[in-house]
Amino acid sequence: MGGSLGLALRKREAPWRVVGWNRSAEPLAHAVRIGAVECACASVAELAAQSDLMVVALPPDRVAPTLADVKPFLREGAVATDVAGAKARIVREATGLLGAAFVGGHPMAGCERSGIEAADADLYAGATWILTPTETTSGEALAQVEELVRAVGARPFVCDAAEHDRWIAACSHLPHVLAYGLAQAAESAGVPTGVAAGSFRDGTRVAAADPVAWAGILLDNAHEVVRALDGMTVWLGAARDAIACRDHNRLSRLLAEAHAAKESLGQDDPRVNG
Amino acid sequence: MGGSLGLALRKREAPWRVVGWNRSAEPLAHAVRIGAVECACASVAELAAQSDLMVVALPPDRVAPTLADVKPFLREGAVATDVAGAKARIVREATGLLGAAFVGGHPMAGCERSGIEAADADLYAGATWILTPTETTSGEALAQVEELVRAVGARPFVCDAAEHDRWIAACSHLPHVLAYGLAQAAESAGVPTGVAAGSFRDGTRVAAADPVAWAGILLDNAHEVVRALDGMTVWLGAARDAIACRDHNRLSRLLAEAHAAKESLGQDDPRVNG
Question: Has this prediction a pTM greater than 0.90?
Fold first, then answer.
């Protein structure tokens, strides 16, 4: 995420000098080599002392501890944001540390691969980038992060952190759980490879993602993921019963409602600020 | 399905003369215009009287009645096959009617659109085409249908009808039900369009398919679809409990097993006869 951001800013000649820091020396050296950062900092304190806008592109459980580490070194008026996939807890903790200067963020882009080797200057082009300011976030801080988002070709979308977590549970975390479950179902049924067609390939694509990392992502939004799974299970139960009863009308109605939902979600949402 | 087959046979200059029949005049005339058939028959009896190999590309509930209609007109040694997505019932009924001359078939290809307007000469290129002969099917009949399958660039895959239905429930019918359910889940959670990312797009792609047609397809394989849904629900319940208990180890293990299943299903199966 961080590597792609650096590459995108430099490729698009954004008006920032990009400096970077990483706990491990090798990925940081790699980032310098590929031009994702202009300059590598020796410590997070050194980075903080140079930064007007700091993007914490670390695993979710490292965001608040890292902000606590850098807090004493932050410049006057500096702004911080993150890219973690669950927002309510991080926003609460980070706002507790930095107050008006923190803006929660979540770019809706990524791929199955991670690390600096997977860095891609076009990762964010055309993507929605969710921002979750609170009542205490300063308008100036939000404006700066929005400027960053637009600078890499993404579209800022401002919403509440809790709302974000509920949406993401339904439209990102749930499809990942379903993809893993579908792969397991095919294995359990003894399906040979050549038999599985397009619906299976598409439905399991994201089961190629790292399972340990995804366990962490799902647990980080556990409350909303459980809620989404419970809703899904109720719906699947209704479909199952209609099938078991050979009730064509009831089943058609269920599928038709879902089909309409799919069609309407295919439209552009006016709230996405292009 | 029928239109694409005709186009493919003619594009690849297969050694058959392709004649066609349809209950409705307009799609049949369209098939002649685009060259999917060389000649349109006025009745199914006329078609049967001219055919050495008859492909019944009709909705599942029309296959056996149509075979009953054509039976009195079939030529000596003629072979019949179908393309329906559930096989056990159709194979039982059709074998009851035609004995050794019927070979159940199911090409693993298709798209969200249907009808002669969606006909595509390359639909079957590289696809697996399942064939489900019984103990009474003649080897000659099977060989003829295999020749047809290879003539349109597909790969014949011979298996038992009941086995086919179990596999298809898991790797085609289940992903369709999940796609509809996922679209409904996103709608219920109030997800705005721009927020849904790649995992949602892929996971719901097939929910664009016609819901009434899909209700019929699912009901046609009801027993196995219910079984697949029950298995999926058990797995989702296990994942849900691991998430609710914040049990990272248990959740990682579940996802890792499913991830391995996905990886192994990504390999080519030696049983697919290229």
Answer: no
